[in-house]
Structures are given as C-alpha cells and as structure tokens.
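Q: Here's a chain of 128 amino acids. Please give me its 3D structure as tokens.
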Amino acid sequence: MILRKAIYYVTAVVSLAATAVICIVFLALSLHAAMRPLVGDAWASVIVAGAAVLLAAAISAVMLYRASPPRRQQEEPRDLASRMFELVQAKPLVALGIAGAIAAVALKNPRTTATVVSALMAGRASKK
C-alpha cells in the first residue's frame, strides 16, 4: 500500500515536470515567433535566452528562500496568567465585559460555580 502511494506520487511529480518542460519549450517558441518579425532572428533568440535566464533566476531565488527561510526570534513561552494580564491591559473594556459575563453565569448557576471552584482548588492542592 505504501509502495503504491509512493509510485503514484513519483508518477505525478514526473508528469508535472514533463508538462512544465513542454510548456516552457512552447512558450519559448511562441516568444521567438512573436519577436522574429519585429527584431529579426538573432535578436529574437537573444530575447528568448534572456527570458530563460530571468525564469531560472526567479525559480532559483524561490528555491533558495524556501531552503533557508529567515529565522524568527523565538519568544519565551508565557503562562496563561501573563497573557491574560496583557489582554486586560490592551483591551480593558473587553476584559470588563468578559468579567461581567462570568459573574452573570456564576450568579445564575451557583451549583456549577461551586463545582468549578472545587475543581480548581483540588487541582492546586495536587500540585503542591
């Protein structure tokens, strides 16, 4: 099963590569045919060669970029409390609305609130 999938992938890659080569060749022939009446045979060939160089340069630039992307600075992992305090500092009205919604739910469902508080206390007791 794995070998069959590998063969399918290889076949797909080879067929895409062959299709790309055929398209590039026909585009080069079309460019040459379009430029020949305007600038002559020699200059049309030069234009086709220049287009090929530009295409190769673009492809190699993309490949080099993908091979070694720029490194991002690693942020140290922050705990949930520090992220919450930053959110409260950045958007105090949103934090106030969330606190109000939590208070409304807590007042509406005291049994659920007691269960959540006891679960949090049990979790803290087990950490010590």
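Q: Can you summarize the key feature?
A: Residues 86-127 form one domain.
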